[in-house]
Write a structure and sequence with these properties.
The chain is an alpha/beta fold. Helices cover about 25% and strands about 30% of the residues. A hairpin with a 2-residue loop joins strand 2 and strand 3. The longest helix has 24 residues.
């Protein structure tokens, strides 16, 4: 009996090996040059009033200031953290003019597992109007949007649970 079991096992192994080999051959060939692969993405934005922006991101949205940059005794930038994500804010030095428009055409998507309605209520309670939502989207998320003090558009999104059917 023991001999028969070992023969059965070795036959199964021989049959399974070609299937694994065939699967490996179907993998796409990497392009040359190879595509970019990132482990993190950290946008940095220039703001008109750094103190006002920090108050919004830290006090209203509840980002955490993880680093501060001081130059000649003045705060010139911060690194914000929310979960594993980071974003930098820097004070505009006005070298390109004081009338430079910021935030136009920029949307920062923020995925979360938190309750979207509770987050939106917290933003409203802090005295900030939402620019959109909260609402369910056709692509399977619930989200809301808010503009920061310089007009950068942030959308907070959570995947909806799929209905069992």
């Amino acid at each position: 009996m023991a001999t028969r079991k070992s023969k059965t096992r070795s036959v199964k192994k021989r049959k399974a090996a070609p299937a694994r080999k065939a699967k490996a051959q179907k993998r796409p060939v990497r392009k040359d040059p190879e595509n970019l692969r990132l482990r993190a993405f950290m946008p940095g934005i220039t703001v008109n009033d750094l103190a006002r922006s920090v108050a919004f991101y830290e006090g209203v949205l509840r980002f955490h200031v993880s680093d501060r940059w001081i130059q000649d005794g003045k705060l010139v930038g911060v690194m914000l953290r929310a979960g594993t994500c980071e974003m930098g804010l820097s004070q505009d030095d006005w070298a390109k003019g004081r009338d430079r428009t910021k935030g136009v055409g920029v949307r920062i998507w923020c995925d979360t597992t938190q309750d979207i309605d509770a987050l939106a209520a917290r933003v409203r309670a802090a005295g900030h109007a939402l620019s959109e939502g909260p609402k369910d989207q056709a692509w399977g998320t619930r989200d809301f949007s808010v503009d920061d003090p310089d007009g950068f558009h942030l959308t907070f999104s959570r995947k909806l649970k799929k209905a069992r059917g």
